[in-house]
Specification:
CATH superfamily of chain B: Thiolase/Chalcone synthase
Strand content of chain A: 15-25%
Number of domains of chain B: 1
Oligomer: heterodimer
CATH architecture of chain B: 3-Layer(aba) Sandwich
Radius of gyration of chain A: 20 Å
Distance between the termini of chain B: 18 Å
Helix content of chain B: 25-40%
CATH class of chain B: Alpha Beta
CATH superfamily of chain A: Thiolase/Chalcone synthase
Distance between the termini of chain A: 33 Å
Number of strands of chain A: 16
Order of helices and strands of chain B: EHHHEHHHEHEHEHEHEE
CATH topology of chain B: Peroxisomal Thiolase, Chain A, domain 1
Largest interface: A-B, 72 and 70 residues
Number of domains of chain A: 1
Number of helices of chain B: 10
Number of strands of chain B: 8
Largest sheet of chain A: 12 strands, mixed
Strand content of chain B: 15-25%
CATH topology of chain A: Peroxisomal Thiolase, Chain A, domain 1
Radius of gyration of chain B: 18 Å
Helix content of chain A: 25-40%
């Protein structure tokens, strides 16, 4: 809904005032930050011998106890929704709460926005009822139960209901670029005066559908992924949630400024990125343009860097196209936490914000010998670094790309 | 550009179930889903009628927003059942099961390289696609943007949906597409007269239930209902579309 008292003429500045994460590293953004600082991986071999980043059963149990007792869950249950919390609910609620607490937001109001990114949503409900799909037992109540919440929009509706929120919402499902695109849309909503504040996040769960699906493309690594390494052979799928509170006011809680972003498409292939990195480069160039800065002002690029042979080559080509061969520092943290697909842009943007706050440039775990065809200055270990601007890029299936620029704020 | 910058509707196209049939046997669509084909037909028709759009607006300044509630539900079901029955994960089924697959397909087929996004919000997915296209155009991320809503039926699940729907809404399938431009786009397409000016689309949250018309069509039916109502209403008005759980509202203004 549009609120008429919002200023539509002034172009507001957009600040990050709170962050929250649930990841294989544990509950809370600090857990992930500590892992990233020490280049310590959370990737483990699962029961099927696939190397994945899984949120532990203990953490999910803790979140379940915490959330079932929460006011938010009570609101959800008191609406016409009757559902048991899924892993997606648990992770999203916890990351959302952490971010809102840090920002000092007690609730979402009519002038606020809520934008979520996911590609799996409540898919684990489907998988538990696979037999019913197999037999198409339409009369079985269990099939009806999992179909009720099959649509990806359900998780967004549940988050909104938990906040008693009736303002502007949007669910973005643009594959692995979704959360970055969510940040860019939120930036536009705040800048244009559509909303005063916006809660932006991504959530993704590990599922048989995605693990077997990516495996069918031979995209999964046989160990911990090695972004930009000459021996890299695939990605590590992971689950988690990341949320960021964005607002226009000159809040004392400002952590970083979201300067702008760019969205562009490859128009090249359904599952492979353009080897020349055309769409990714366009997204980066547009992000710089919207941020109002030149390429040489970026101090560090937090790359998508999945460790798949094609992604890393394409992204490197895009970086060279936009930033030239001046040797800009580039890192990927995928070997720490894995690839959270639609949520990756949110979780990794949280790392970018924390990097600006702490003035620490993160490393690239597990790289041993850099691919000689990737002419980038890949940063291997975390180090103190004075940084004013960071660019975060993402690439997704379908040739979808997004890039955002964050800047340091004086606190 | 500001929140209220002008956005104009140039053209629209509806594709009902069955129009995709002649395309199914064409080699180009051998690996495409029905959703991909229905949206392809909608966009192809728009571009054919929209005089020299691709010549007048660069591929980087043409955007697309796809809205779908269920996505490729049938293909997802096929992927999962194939996996269980034969222990085989078929790459083409996984690729096409993704919500973003239709957008990727359209981007490749029509050379659309501008801002593009897939959104989903139950029976408001089509409206959210239009609202997002307005955001794109007002932010000047593109000069023209195609907003699409689509969904397909899975016949074997119809009994389940019927059991879940207390209002017993008749479900259908299809695709609808709107071609929208901002002032810059309109200047470039100077030979085209806009149908109307789209001021706002209200979606999301708890919208009061309306007494407006509801057209039994398909889940993301906002675009279809909107387009059909355009044919019988003045072009500077508010169109309110009743939905199973509320309503959406298109605010149109004079040109």
């Amino acid at each position: 809904m549009i609120s008429s008292n919002l200023n539509s003429n002034q172009e507001n500045e957009v600040y990050v005032t709170g962050v929250g994460v649930v990841a294989p590293s544990g509950i809370g953004s600090d857990c992930l930050w500590r892992r990233a600082l020490s280049n310590q991986t959370c990737i483990r071999a699962g029961e099927d011998n696939q190397f994945v980043g899984r949120v532990s059963a203990d953490n999910l149990a803790e979140l379940s106890n915490r959330i079932i007792e929460s006011e938010q869950w009570s609101r959800l249950r008191s609406s016409d929704l009757d559902i048991a919390p899924s892993p997606a609910h648990l992770m999203a609620f916890a990351a959302m709460s952490e971010a809102m607490t840090q920002a000092g937001w007690s609730h979402l109001g009519p002038d606020d926005g809520l934008i979520l990114a996911t590609t799996t949503g409540l898919v684990t409900g489907w998988e538990s009822e696979l037999g019913h799909f197999l037999n198409e037992q339409a009369d079985d109540p269990k099939l009806a139960d999992c179909m009720r919440y099959q649509g990806l929009g359900c998780i967004l509706q549940h988050l909104a209901a938990s906040q008693n929120f009736s303002g502007q919402t949007r669910l973005i499902t643009t594959a692995c670029a979704a959360a970055t695109q969510a940040l860019i849309l939120a930036h536009q909503w705040i800048r244009s005066g559509r909303v005063k504040r916006c809660l932006v996040g991504g959530v993704e769960v590990l599922s048989n559908l995605t693990i077997r699906g990516f495996d069918s493309f031979q995209l999964l690594s046989d160990g911990v992924c090695k972004p930009f390494d000459q021996n890299r052979n695939g990605i590590n799928l992971a689950e988690g949630a990341g949320f960021l509170c964005l607002e226009s006011d000159a809040s004392p809680n400002r952590l970083a400024k979201l300067c702008g972003g760019g969205i562009a498409a490859d128009g090249y292939h359904m599952t492979a990125p353009d080897p020349q990195g055309s769409g990714c480069a366009s997204a980066m160039s547009l992000a710089l343009k919207h941020a109002g800065i030149d390429a040489d002002m970026i101090d560090w690029i937090h790359a998508h860097g999945t460790g798949s042979p094609h992604n890393d080559v394409s992204e490197a080509a895009a970086i060279l196209k936009v930033f030239g061969d001046r040797g800009i520092a580039v890192s990927s943290t995928k070997a720490i936490h894995g690839h959270m697909l639609a949520a990756s842009g949110a979780v990794e943007s949280v790392l970018c914000v924390m990097a600006l706050v702490n003035q620490v440039m993160l490393g690239t775990a597990k790289i041993e010998t850099q691919d000689p065809t990737i002419n980038l200055e890949v940063n291997r270990d975390s180090c103190d670094r004075s940084m004013n601007y960071i660019l975060k890029s993402t690439l997704g299936f379908g040739g979808s790309n997004g890039a955002v620029v964050f800047s340091r704020v004086t606190r | 550009m500001s929140l209220r910058s002008d956005v104009f509707l140039i053209d629209y196209e509806l594709v009902e179930s069955g129009r995709e049939q002649p395309y199914l046997s064409k080699p180009k669509f051998r690996r495409a889903s029905r959703g991909m084909i229905m949206t392809y037909v909608a966009v192809e028709s728009l571009l054919e009628r929209s005089w020299q759009l691709k010549e007048l607006i660069s591929e980087q300044r043409l955007g697309v927003v796809v809205g779908t509630s269920q996505g490729e539900l049938e293909i997802t079901k096929n992927f999962l059942t194939t996996l269980v029955k034969s222990e085989t994960a078929r790459p083409i089924l996984f690729q096409n099961s993704l919500h973003n697959a239709v957008l990727g397909f359209l981007s490749i087929e029509f050379g659309i390289k501008g801002a593009s996004m897939t959104v989903s919000n139950g029976s408001y997915s089509g409206e959210d696609a239009v609202a997002t296209a307005l955001d794109f155009l007002r932010a000047d991320w593109c000069d023209a943007c195609i907003a699409i809503g689509w969904d397909t039926k899975v016949n074997s699940f119809e009994k389940v949906w019927a059991a879940l729907d207390p209002e017993n809404v008749k479900r259908g399938e299809g695709a609808g597409a709107l071609l929208l431009v901002n002032q810059s786009g309109l200047n470039r397409l100077s030979a085209r007269s806009p149908i109307t000016r789209v001021v706002e689309v209200e979606t999301g949250g708890k919208i009061a239930k309306s007494t407006g018309q509801y057209i039994d069509y398909y889940d993301s039916n906002g675009i279809a209902s909107f387009s059909r109502l355009l044919e019988v209403t003045p072009h500077a008005c508010e169109i309110q579309i009743g939905k199973p759980n509320g309503s959406s509202r298109f605010v149109l203004g004079p040109i």
